[in-house]
Amino acid sequence: MNEQLSPFAAAALSIVEEGGAIMKANHERPHTIRRKGRIDLVTETDFAIEAFLKERLAVLTPEAAFLAEESAESLDLPPTCWIIDPVDGTTNFAHGLPLTVVSVAYRKDGELVLGIVNAPLLGECYVAEKGKGAWRNGERINVSTVETCENALVATGFPYDVASRTDEILNRLRPVLATCQGVRRCGAAALDLAWTACGRFDAYYEDGLKPWDMAAGSLLVREAGGRVTGMDGSPLDLGEAVLASNGRLHEALGNLIR
């Protein structure tokens, strides 16, 4: 256990790690898959992990509300709440790809104070606590020191309505492909943010997201020394778009995608 975490954060981390064990146990089993949209999938594992997390976290913080992907009736953020994506990267999970995570953030009095991104199929668990830093498997992490887009490895993602927005998305992607060292698409926003926090990626951008996609990962990036804003450079409001980076190339990449 990371001794630098508060007892509250350590307790939450233990619960999220238990939730990850459900994902790991179900990974190679046949899945019951249904569609929420044309390419938006959900499995029985999404529901099982979400139910487990809500039950256990409610004991830890009886006063907190929940905004969880599979049960949310709106995107309204209560001032004090858990923000949960039980399986971020469900399409990957359904296809047997290990790039999938459990993402949990705690928001207290309107401010993110804890973020956990657990990738059990990769054997990695990331945690950040406001004002204390960010860690992977108990080791402190930091963003990269890359200073130019030409040397940057950038991550992105595509929204579920990509078919109706192909030109817009490609117009944004084209200058990034032409300028940066490389572009990657993992298919799990929280993992993209975690990998930006630990320096594997130098930056990440995407729109068409929900609060549970970016809440935990955004705190990871900030506590690892990076910068997170809206894709237009405005303060992040856990809305639909995010631009995260090591801070050094934030403006330059923002200019490219805008």
Give a description of the structure:
This protein has 258 residues and is α+β, with helices and mostly antiparallel strands. It folds into 2 domains: 7-140, Fructose-1,6-Bisphosphatase, Chain A, domain 1, CATH 3.30.540; 149-257, D-Maltodextrin-Binding Protein, domain 2 (3-Layer(aba) Sandwich), CATH 3.40.190.80. The protein has helices spanning 7-26, 44-60, 90-94, 166-179, 189-197, 211-223, 250-257, and strands at residues 33-35, 41-43, 65-68, 81-88, 101-108, 111-119, 124-129, 133-136, 139-140, 153-156, 182-184, 203-206, 227-229, 242-245. The strands form 3 sheets. It has a 7-stranded mixed β-sheet, with helices on both faces. Strand 5 (101-108) and strand 6 (111-119) form a beta hairpin. Helix 5 packs parallel to helix 6. The protein is globular. The termini are far apart.
Q: Give the SSE string.
A: HEEHEEHEEEEEEHEHEHEEH
User: End-to-end distance, in Å?
Assistant: 42 Å
Structural class: alpha+beta
CATH topology of the largest domain: Fructose-1,6-Bisphosphatase, Chain A, domain 1
| Range of strand content | 25-35%
Number of helices: 7
Overall form: globular
Number of strands: 14
Largest sheet: 7 strands, mixed
Mean pLDDT metric = 93
What gyration radius follows from the Cα positions, in whole Å?
17 Å
Number of domains: 2
The CATH H-level homologous superfamily of the largest domain:
Fructose-1,6-Bisphosphatase, subunit A, domain 1
* Percent range of helical residues: 25-40%
List low-confidence stretches: none
CATH class annotation of the largest domain: Alpha Beta
Q: Order of strands across the biggest sheet?
A: 3-4-5-6-7-8-9
Oligomer: single chain
Per CATH, the architecture of the largest domain is 2-Layer Sandwich
